[in-house]
Amino acid sequence: MKRSFKDDFNMMSMLLIPIGVAVNIVGFQIANVLRLPIFLDTIGTILIGVVAGPWVALLAGLITNLINGIFNPTYFPYAITSVAIGLGVGYLSKTGMFKNIPKTIISGIVITFIAVIVSAPITVLVFGGATGGTGAILTATFLASGQKIWSAVFASSFIFEIADKVVSALIVYFIVRKMSDRYLSKMNYGTLYMKREGR
Amino acid sequence: MQKNRIQQLHPMTKFFFALLVSAAVLIIPGFIFSFLVFPILLVIATAAGIVKEFFGTVMKALLFLLIIIFFMQLLFYPGDHVMGQWGIFKWTEEGLNYGLTLTSRILAMGSAFILFFRLTEVRDFVKSLEDAGLPPMGAYVVLSTLQIIPEMRRHANTIMDAQKTRGVETEGSMLTRAKAFIPTLTPLILSSISSTEERAITLESRAFSAPTKKTSLHKLTKSTADRILPFVYIIILIGLVLWRILR
Lengths: 199, 247
Fold this sequence. Notes:
The complex is a heterodimer. By secondary structure, chain A is an all-alpha fold.
């Protein structure tokens, strides 16, 4: 399938962005209310990446962090991470990497690596290795046991991200399965995930 | 809402001020200036009549993070000049300096942007971006996102209550609570998505994607101060850079 950069931005996929951003933010709050140990704050970005492609997901990730940044500017630097996750998911989706559960788990692991590789330098260079919350305690524990700042941050963010991203990818997989063919057929990358093979 | 003179400034004037503060903090070495920025911003916030909200947001967003950052640098930043020891932890002069520099910069930049968003309505900021060349679709996406978030939050609570009535457990062990996540999120996403079609039809029926210039009911005006201040910023910035090079 060949399509140009501009084709990704049709009305339906642009209107999906507000939903995706709101899902990111509300998903995080539901996870908080249920006192889950993971963030689940990228479900919307991943969902958009799967059905609407890398460029729309890139925008969704960017807008999520800009809107979170209105109340807490420490989100601004991490916009790069959200953008990278959106792009990565879009390209994974293009190759059908969300078609079944094993593939989705592999995608989740790939997303984890993207998130860790992009966010760890931000954490070290901008925030001196600290993040608000429990991640910092883990990083400090690694540092106290004699590790260097880079390996400590990589290790602690990997531990925190892996469960989060794999679970998020699986949740997206189940949600996409529940979407109607009628809706998926309107999304640029949705046809890949329709239950009835399209003609 | 009655607005005072600072709040009435053009959004871009205020935005450039936040950028200027961030640049200044990075250009000027050491932490004394950077720590002075926060009191200055507090004075501006007082003059604009929003000091309480400003201070509250800064404390909520940054205080905890700054404390963690400071102690992490103090205890773990590599350095040779040991100043003190407590158990296995020892702190160094380099760590203290780096900790103060880093926290002062984050405090200054973070609070500059918090002040900007307390002084400016997002609607105005987006409109000014649109005037500067952001496509109308982009402006619509950002604004409708801000509208959808509280709507979705209410909707999520309703769904959660409904699922509780059906017997979905939201209390108990972690696995039980985790299991409640999907029955809440799935209906939320699927119902929100079905509303995008209606939105698309509504927008198209108003010729939203027609290739003509859009008119807007919401207009922003520039005062004399808005014309002068950007030049003042640029002069200050050039002055700072020259001072840093020539010193």
